[in-house]
Amino acid sequence: MKLSTPRWWYSRSRRGTGGVVRLLLTPVGWIWAAVTARRIAKGRPVDPGVPVICVGNLTVGGTGKTPVVREIARRLGAAVLSRGYGGSEPGPLKVDAARHSSADVGDEPLMLARDLTVWVSRDRAAGAVAAAQDGARIIVMDDGHQNPSVKKTLSLIVVDGETRGEEWPFGAGGVFPSGPMREPLKVGLARADAVVLLLPADMAEPDPELVGLFSPLPVLIAHLVPASPAPSGPQVGFAGVGKPWKVERAWQAAGCDLADFWPFPDHHAYDEAILQRLADRAAQYGAGLVTTEKDWARLPAPWRDRVSAWPVRAVFEDEAALEGLLAPVTSSPPRPRIARATRGRGLGEGRLG
Q: Do 54 and 152 belong to one domain?
């Protein structure tokens, strides 16, 4: 399912735009939360025999989780395990960036596979075992905080830390579809070891009220910063991510001369017709075309030379705190794989996870 994230999800106010819709959808959210909780409680996680770091989130839509996955996997020389959302391959499959397409393995795995070892598998447990058998000493699982099938050594929650007025990462706390939450905040935090609060490059400090919600968990601050200078000259930008309006805001803050910006639903598949419309629009302004690295991975090959990808990376404020958090994982010796472990702190994943 492609998500076009409603802006009213992220408003703390229960009135105004979306208020009536939120109220009508609240009972459905209760059902969603109950089903998720039951699935987690019944989970029997598989131990793949190597440490697994789960980098997950509590909300539907973009949080900047994938740059955090990339940074941690890069530091540790770890393999990445992804569900491969949007791809046709069920896996377990080791991604080959030169051979596979986003239609095969999904956009995020293809993007990460350019400089990391990446596995996709709809069955996360089978994928973890395959990665370990292939020689992975550590696995970083991209998403899966709500998935009970794999035993986690460390569970990190990534939270979009940008707050502006009534705009709040958890909105009014409603569970999907009445809000952005995959499960209630306290329930999800109870299974986490730490929170990574991701701030835009132009936001120096997080909202103290937001940070206070995560006590007593450790909170690591990271900034989402451009990995390269802004494309030169005017640009027509486009993005199909969970919160495209934040991409537009971040590009403007980073100095991109945006003549126009087109938002699309998350994981949007760009066809020739829409790309030609974008090119025509850029021609009107005498501008180039720019998109996110994730969107660029979904472009048809002939268009990749015509569109600039503007990558971002996660930069942690306190390197020592991050190293301290990861130290027990990196020093953990390999162990025999347990086919079906006894019930533990495994987490469960729904269709949106």
A: yes
Q: What is the pTM of this model?
A: 0.88
Tell me: do 218 and 256 sit in the same domain. no
* Containing structural domain, residue 269: 235-310
How far apart are alpha carbons 191 and 203 in whole angstroms? 28
Distance, in Å, from the CA atom of 36 to the CA atom of 28, rounded to the nearest integer, reads 12
Q: Which residues contact 82 (CB under 8 A, 6 or more apart)?
A: 106, 108, 109, 112, 118, 119, 120, 121, 141, 142, 143
User: Does 81 share its domain with 180?
Assistant: yes
pLDDT computed for residue 122 by the predictor: 96
The two structure tokens encoding residue 330: 């990196």
Q: Cα–Cα distance between 162 and 202 in angstroms, integer?
A: 10
Same domain assignment for residues 326 and 289: no
Residues in the chain where the model's pLDDT stays below 50: 1, 339-353
Q: Are strands 93-94 and 219-226 parallel, antiparallel or unpaired?
A: unpaired
Q: Can you read off the two tokens belonging to residue 187?
A: 């329930």
- DSSP 3-state of 10: helix
230 DSSP assignment: P
What pLDDT is recorded for position 109?
A: 96
Rounded to 5 degrees, what angle do the CA atoms 252, 258, 262 make?
Answer: 105
Is 205 found in the same domain as 79?
yes
Whole-number Å distance between alpha carbons of 75 and 88: 30
- Give start and end residues of each alpha helix (H) in the chain: 19-41, 65-76, 102-105, 107-112, 124-133, 185-189, 208-212, 244-253, 272-285, 293-296, 319-330
Q: What are phi and psi of 160, to 5 degrees?
A: -70, 110
CA distance 37 to 148: 10
The burial class, CB within 10 Å (0-12 / 13-18 / 19+), for 225 is middle
Q: What percent of the chain has pLDDT over 90?
A: 71
C-alpha to C-alpha distances, 140 to 49, 75, 114, 163, 276, nearest whole angstrom: 14, 11, 16, 28, 38
**Nearest to residue 307, comparing CAs of 347, 264, 275, 280?**
275
Q: How is residue 157 written in tokens? A: 């929650």
